[in-house]
Amino acid sequence: MSDIGTRTAAADEIRAVIEDWAGAMREKDARRVLAHGTQDCLVYSLAPPLKETAAGAEGLEQWFSTWKGPLGYQLQELEISAGGDVAFATALTHLSGEKLDGEKAALWFRQTLGLRRTENGWKIAHQHESVPFYMDGSFKAAIDLDPKSEVDWQAPSRPPMAGVIAYLNVQDANATAEFYGRAFGAREVDRRYAEDGKRLIHCHLTINGGALMLNDPFPEFGYPWKPQEGVVLHLVVDDADFWWKRAVAAGAEVTMPLAVAFWGDYYGQLRDPFGVLWAIVAPVKKD
């Protein structure tokens, strides 16, 4: 058989292995999935840690148990290159399904498989999954992309945002954003969820004409929650009494009563339920 024929035959064998492996993923058959891998298969998955070895079925079965019914697991644009006893394959993979809590998930990600020829046939020795992230400073995963996504590189970029923008790491970004709507009249510009569908990786609010950003802690990525210290968010407004009463009615705690300060402004401080200090400031109205 010619070298080209040998590579073609190997590619056909590998394709069959990958298709059965993907079928086992859809059927949530952990042992069959792992049977297609080497014992020391190195896995760079979407979930932490940074790397792991697929040593047993227990962890995979535990993940499968969080899904209701079969999984959607489809590979698109599968390309295989084989030479000798090693090969690699690339594909765009679509994962979809319904979690036990009713959350529905669907995302595309990039996948690369490294394979070795063994005495038992081709086995997956390396698995690498990834999604791109947006380069706008939010570091949010671009899980809203699909193979048909198109970017207009000639489109004008968004205008820069004025001033210094506070970006808060809070314990419950969803609840914080809702509270800021009630207390400070916040308007939501954008809200992006992490892969768990619960935590916010990015939330953009507008308050009093300025931007405020929020996100939940992600300790698994080295970004744990820490109490806010030494920072006060100032709201300079025309009607301090209105802003003050609305925030207090929503549940903000008074830490410095609203009064005329020694420097001449009408000033007071509040602490919101998430530990963030706010100042309401207005010029003193002259009779």
UniProtKB/TrEMBL annotation:
Pfam families: Glyoxalase (PF00903), SnoaL_3 (PF13474). CDD domains: VOC_like. SUPFAM superfamilies: Glyoxalase/Bleomycin resistance protein/Dihydroxybiphenyl dioxygenase (SSF54593), NTF2-like (SSF54427). Residues 161-283 form the VOC domain. PANTHER family: BNAUNNG04460D PROTEIN-RELATED, VOC DOMAIN-CONTAINING PROTEIN. This is DUF4440 domain-containing protein.
